[in-house]
């Protein structure tokens, strides 16, 4: 299964980005509003300048207290964003995410972001694939 297939199957909505210069407070509000766990930091909406997760915000709050919410996203974001290609296999992307210990990865095609793959998306796709295979095997066994 290719990442492109996973993106097609998931409920598509606009890729959520925030520009550099926004505060952690604004990022936390956006994450809450959109009901997502990660936001891509991008000044132009197509290039990933960084990535910021709920975990990043929580860790900063734990170490600095509420004042951390006034920090700029670029002070906390992960700068070296690992991306994947839509024609990459889901297994390869899962291996990258597992090895890197992160849960979200922007999908880039033609120099621009076209979506984001989450660990949840990947797990759902694999479960759907296993269910399809199970159903096919049951039909084979029944002789249909």
TrEMBL record:
PROSITE patterns: CBS. Pfam families: CBS (PF00571). GO terms for molecular function: kinase activity. SMART domains: CBS (SM00116). The keyword Transcription regulation does not apply. Transmembrane segments: none annotated. Residues 11-69, 77-133 form the CBS domain. CDD domains: CBS_pair_bac_euk. The keyword Transferase applies. Keywords: CBS domain, Kinase, Transferase. This is Histidine kinase. It comes from Pseudaestuariivita atlantica.
